[in-house]
Amino acid sequence: MQIIDGKATADEIKKEIALEVQEIKASGGKIPHLVAILVGNNGASETYVANKVKSCEEVGFHSTLLRFEPTITEDELLLEVRKVNDNDDMDGLIVQLPLPDHINPDKVMEAINYKKDVDGFHPINIGRMAKGLPAYISATPQGILDLLERYNIETSGKHCVVVGRSQIVGLPMSILMQRNTKIGNCTVTLTHSKTKDLSAVCATADILIAALGRPEFITAEYVKEGAVVIDVGLTRIIDTSKKSGFALKGDVKFDEVAPKCSFITPVPKGVGPMTIVSLMKNTLLSAKGIIYAK
């Protein structure tokens, strides 16, 4: 069994991005600029955005954080999105979810210029991805692809089972794994809460991707010997033995499942660090005009 070290891989990719940014700067090119919009005071969102801003600093990007009170109206937020859309200096825009209940997140995502949608949530990017056209791929699925590639995990002809059908991870992951690409060419089964005999279906997987948001749901009976297991889950569990008062758990019961695996991602330091670095990669592509011409 080999542990897939997402933290080490993310650090390696950050160094590669930072080197490229140095070369861009030396040649007088445009330094990538990422803008993050944060509405309200959600603790988890604060942490996520802070980590994204820190990563921008580490690789040499410019970054701008736009903070708004939870009372901001939907129309006011859409106006702020349009301001970023119209600013040629700003290459990428992310709006941190969740948003307050009175704001429709789909409406906000669709308002983002798809050429600056480095989160890969805009319908145009999702549609282009599904057709196999150049597009910004959402960060977590892209991070998983990078891990599979950098660990030289064979995917062609394998049976991939994805547990969870969210638009952020499960659905795009199922599309990406069946595409005719280097990391792809799988036979894919997309499962969810209504799937019958879920454990039996999962146990047929050569590659099992757990993205359902239920801590330690995937136990040994869900995994066949030699499978590759990718754990996307990240849930805070109360743990008084920890100084912080909580522990982070994935969707996979790691100690029970790991002995059966050929490869497995831990939680933390697995998929999580790759999500932010994928956002950096998309912002760099945007600044260079590689996916969509400037």
Essential attributes:
single chain; 294 residues; alpha/beta; Rossmann fold; 2 domains; 6-stranded parallel sheet; 3-stranded parallel sheet; 10 helices; 38% helix; globular
Could you walk me through the main structural features you see in this protein, from its secondary elements to its overall organization?
The protein has two domains: 28-116, Leucine Dehydrogenase, chain A, domain 1 (Rossmann fold, 3-Layer(aba) Sandwich), CATH 3.40.50.10860; 139-273, NAD(P)-binding Rossmann-like Domain (Rossmann fold, 3-Layer(aba) Sandwich). It has helices at residues 6-26, 43-59, 74-85, 105-111, 123-131, 139-150, 170-178, 198-202, 254-257, 272-288; strands at residues 2-3, 33-39, 62-68, 92-95, 159-163, 187-191, 207-210, 227-231, 235-238, 246-249, 261-264. The chain has a six-stranded parallel β-sheet. The protein has a three-stranded parallel β-sheet with strand order 3-2-4, sandwiched between helices. A two-stranded antiparallel sheet has the order 9-10. The protein is an alpha/beta fold and 294 residues long. It starts with a strand and ends in a 6-residue tail after the last helix. It is built from ten helices and eleven strands. 41% of the residues are buried. Helix 7 (170-178) links the parallel strand 5 and strand 6 (187-191). 38% of the residues lie in helices and 17% in strands.
